[in-house]
# Entry
Amino acid sequence: MSAQNKCSRIDQWILEKIYRAAGQPSVRLELRNSAEVSPRGALPVANIVIEDRKTLLRLLIDLEAEFGDAYSEGRITLEGDLVSALEILYGSISQGEHHGWYVKLVSKCMEYAQRNSLRGSRRNIQRHYDLNTAFYQLWLDPQLIYTCAYYPSSATTLEQAQVAKLDYVCRKLRLQPGEQVVDAGCGWGALALHMAQNYGVIVRAFNISREQILFARRRAKELGLSHRVAFIEDDYRNISGECDAFVSVGMLEHVGREHYRDLGSIIHRSLSKTGRGLLHFVGRNHPLPFSTWTRKRIFHGAYAPALGEAMQVFEPWDLSVLDVENLRPHYAKTLEQWLARFEKSQQEISEMFTPEFTRAWRLYLAGAVAGFRVGTLQLFQIVFARTACQQIPWTRAHLYTKEQHGERETTWMHATS
Amino acid sequence: MSAQNKCSRIDQWILEKIYRAAGQPSVRLELRNSAEVSPRGALPVANIVIEDRKTLLRLLIDLEAEFGDAYSEGRITLEGDLVSALEILYGSISQGEHHGWYVKLVSKCMEYAQRNSLRGSRRNIQRHYDLNTAFYQLWLDPQLIYTCAYYPSSATTLEQAQVAKLDYVCRKLRLQPGEQVVDAGCGWGALALHMAQNYGVIVRAFNISREQILFARRRAKELGLSHRVAFIEDDYRNISGECDAFVSVGMLEHVGREHYRDLGSIIHRSLSKTGRGLLHFVGRNHPLPFSTWTRKRIFHGAYAPALGEAMQVFEPWDLSVLDVENLRPHYAKTLEQWLARFEKSQQEISEMFTPEFTRAWRLYLAGAVAGFRVGTLQLFQIVFARTACQQIPWTRAHLYTKEQHGERETTWMHATS
# Structure
């Protein structure tokens, strides 16, 4: 047997091992010019080509992390629809999900290195949200709402769906003019401004991303809402004072599972005796960390909890869960639209960042679409209240009356000014 | 100091100790002709009279259990509104909730003695549900629906609210004609019959209460639904075969917290790839067993889980939680109406049971009203589905369209017969 032949046989053996570790997905896997595996009895959804032997060996050690990095660096090329391929991969990997000791060790070390202490959280958040607001403006809606939208009908546009989401959150909270609201992890400020403008409440909005806070303050000024919305650059753990409603949209993923009780204690300390609140977050059906790739390249220190884990926020305190809604299909749709805009903005993005960055972010967005489609990711909205709160509606019908879709007659804009 | 005087002083000391253990509620506490404690700076809501010293001493050892037994046996009398007094007591006891080692030990022993093995469950269930159907007919609605009703408006009667609940459950499940449904813990059969009659589904309904199964079979025959609804006298752990929807209303409380995973495995084994399900159960804001009195006299082996505990049903399996609704105010109202009917049926009940039994059941019903009012008890409906289920509605608006309140135009009665 020639040396080349022997090499090819080893390549083939490794490739097949990787293919089995990935749960034998319906994709064709190839090591460029050397070995290949095709799915049995099914047409491959995509053709994944590993460009060199180093990548092949690394995939053997940490499949998910190396797939991400190699795809970003062009050491893996994918022919076919990226989202469809990832749907297939997520479906098959989660079936045979057994991380080796090495991946588990890396995952644990990463969890420690990226722990969400006061300083650690700031570092984790800045690495994602302080990238460049102009970059996010290329593919988010004009208000820069970077969380799951809500589509009352299939004809709703992204812009409408984001406003519908803001309104849906306000309705779930049953905000009343003059009430004090805390918005923990306020992003670029759209929800805080919407609440003040349309529901007449006073908002203190917290965020540790400086870029986002500065942007939000400018918008508040432009809208003439600076006297009603305070954008505070601080950690949720430093929130003081009382509020009637506590809302947090898209922050729990960054709190870290070791801090749910802390978040609960802040809510407990802040909420008035009749207070209500809402948490909106990416969750899971089962407890499972994000891949090491996601935590290394995209969301540092992030964790999406299963509902059982999220209950640690509420159960140690005088808080009662009233309503949980899973909006998973809405986030799949939101992300599809972000991804499409992202692809359309290739030119501008390539002028801002390296090709590796662009490919990594394409993989992240496509992976999120796939995750919400196949159900490895969920989106939960939890409404809660003090046990003694009497402002609990008798049914949820009020959320679905006609006025919901921006046809509300009264706005409370000047009610308390 | 005379012996009598000395005795009185000891009585007073014990009474005050009990009063503090109860969290200093706004009630007047008296040991007949000997000692008393009144709330400071507040008018007492009720006057609780302990009739003898033996009861006083027992209260010192196990407050909740002895209060229940002494009230039932007439060794404690209560002047004032029972529900209001219990609301005050629940509010104050839960604030200073510290069970001594003795109560904790009794509670643990009871948990073991009443464990929900196949045989244990049957014994536990029979002690409550096989009492006497005629008794339940005195104070439940005509269909004998012994779970929380759903009141779309405040004018809804108990009978209407129970039918509205059945319909609400069916709508949450999005039942389609011809589908196979498992009803685990079917009570006297009202839901199973409603689903078959109005949604055209085929139901297998399980229950280990013989009385209830016999009653349900008679009703199925009367309604001409025997070919569409099978009432099976068996444990949920013995459910086999596949179904499109798995529903369980008021059974999880009897499953026991050590068996949530087992229940989940049965659901996982039964549900088709596109299956959905609903659990409806009494829950808690925090993990906490029922009082030993409740478990000794009313619900043997019962446990009302916090949501975090209930997630153990779903999270080990391929199941996704879609919707959780807390219907606590609806159960307070349902129980108020049961209690009122119970009181009206004093004469008939006293002919069936001893005065002790009647008082114990009055205390149980009044205590449940109080518990749901003050929030020591919650009522959760959880909708779940297979992760791959595509029959998930885009929003929950369909639950609140006009046809909800019995105005549905189509019934599926003969769709599959």
